């Protein structure tokens, strides 16, 4: 029995699908620990990994790691897990800073203190982030959350 109702429910969470529009989701196997809502790329034979170079963000096969509520950690996938990867659709993603409508989207491939590979931002730090060619900002959420479209979404 429900005993409480949120006055202001959360807008979304990294890795949640934004809406029920047409989307394509594939299953890849994690080669590293992957948080929900970050950019991943296919390294080989449906293997999901985090980007480590600009080419992993701007080339090859990329997508967003979707949330899976059955994962014990509650925050992401472990090595060897089957990862649900959105290849086309709208999804909430993990951001490092507040994004605004019209911002160019950048995905991190190198990390420093307090940063996450695959997370999104709005400034061009070419030494650590690149612009994904198949993703664009749809809706700015909070300092750690935004909605993006992946692929051709109508």
In short:
This protein has one helix and twelve strands, in the order ββββαββββββββ. By secondary structure, it is mainly β. The chain has one domain.
Topology:
Layout: E1 24-30, E2 34-35, E3 39-42, E4 47-49, H1 54-58, E5 62-65, E6 76-77, E7 82-94, E8 106-108, E9 120-121, E10 129-130, E11 135-142, E12 145-150
Parallel strand pairs: 1-4
Antiparallel strand pairs: 1-7, 2-6, 3-4, 3-5, 5-7, 7-12, 8-9, 8-10, 11-12
What does this structure look like?
The protein is mainly beta. It is built from 1 helix and 12 strands, in the order ββββαββββββββ. It has one domain. The strands form 3 sheets. It has a 5-stranded mixed barrel. It is globular, with a radius of gyration of 15 Å.
Counted by DSSP, the helix tally is 1
Strand numbers in spatial order across the main sheet: 1-4-3-5-7
Question: What's the structural domain tally?
Answer: 1
Radius of gyration: 15 Å
Structural class by SSE content: mainly beta
Helix content: under 10%
Uncertain regions spanning at least 5 consecutive residues: none
Distance between the termini: 39 Å
Number of strands: 12
Shape: globular
- pLDDT average, as an integer? 89
Task: Tell me the major beta sheet.
Answer: 5 strands, mixed, barrel
